[in-house]
Amino acid sequence: MTLRARTRWGTVAILACGVLLSASDKKDQAKASDNQAVDSGSFAVLVKGQRVVTESFSVHMNDGVSTVKSQLQNAPGSSPISQHSELETTGSGELVSYSWTDGNGSLTVTPNNEFLLEKILTSPSSKAAEQPFLMPKTSAILDNNFFIHREVLAWRYLATNCHPEGGGQKCQKDSADFGVLVPQDRTSLRVRIELVGREKVMIHGAERELLRLNLKGEAFSWALWVDENDKFKLMRVLIADDNNTEVLRD
């Protein structure tokens, strides 16, 4: 199954020190960002209520570098697939590297002077094709099928639109536009994300009050729900163009 949401951020490290960890002292925040497991778990991709894909993921910070790893696997009984991705960025939000493979083809994205360069292999023995992008090193990666990238995008938005207040976080409802690179499509685009507010939604049969964000592009519209009481982790995704498809955190 391929979910092609053609879908920017300071950095996971900045967010974890700010929105996620909510520490008051900047020096303590910087120390907390090193060797820090920010998030890990899995998402279930459901079509008509049936799991078709599982995404296992982890987000770590170490020595100022954020690493986001993800693996996709089909549900038992369906056609086998396995995709892996790994995203690394510096504490200032600059891309270190991005890689993806499905065991046959692969690609990498790395900085090339002030912009980005993608290298694509269609098979292990093929010659790499190159495609430059006139995008800054701080551009976000939002590749096809990886919902953890959507969580990171939500974090970036919240990190710039929320501030501590009264022991919690007060968030503005202003929308923000972001430049994004979608490596598997070899394309770049702009997306808009906005905070809708708190909503009650059903998660695994239990009602939860979560923050809803809308993520929109020229050809898609998604709804994201994050838990402000649990480090703004992504809990649910609904694809408005396909009401039969949703994503839930396991």
Structural notes for this entry:
By secondary structure, the chain is mainly beta. The chain has a single domain (12-93, 143-249), classed as YmcC-like fold, CATH 2.40.360. 12% of the residues lie in helices and 54% in strands. The protein contains three helices and 17 strands. The protein has a 15-stranded mixed sheet with strand order 8-7-6-5-4-3-2-1-17-16-15-14-13-12-9, covered by helices on one side. A two-stranded antiparallel sheet has the order 10-11. A hairpin with a 2-residue loop joins β13 (187-203) and β14 (206-217). α1 crosses α3 (147-161). It is globular, with a radius of gyration of 18 Å. The two termini are 19 Å apart.
- Specify Rg, calculated over alpha carbons: 18 Å
- In the CATH hierarchy, what is the architecture at level 2? Beta Barrel
Q: Give the spatial strand order of the biggest sheet.
A: 8-7-6-5-4-3-2-1-17-16-15-14-13-12-9
Structural class: mainly beta
Count of beta strands: 17
Defining key terms:
250 residues, mainly beta, YmcC-like fold, 15-stranded mixed β-sheet, two-stranded antiparallel ribbon, disordered N terminus
Structure described in brief:
The protein has a single domain, classed as YmcC-like fold (Beta Barrel), CATH 2.40.360.
How is this fold's topology laid out?
Blueprint: H1 12-20, H2 26-32, E1 36-47, E2 50-62, E3 65-74, E4 82-90, E5 95-101, E6 106-112, E7 115-121, E8 129-133, E9 140-141, H3 147-161, E10 162-165, E11 168-171, E12 176-182, E13 187-203, E14 206-217, E15 220-227, E16 233-239, E17 245-249
Parallel strand pairs: 9-12
Antiparallel strand pairs: 1-2, 1-17, 2-3, 3-4, 4-5, 5-6, 6-7, 7-8, 10-11, 12-13, 13-14, 14-15, 15-16, 16-17
Helix pairs in contact: 1-3
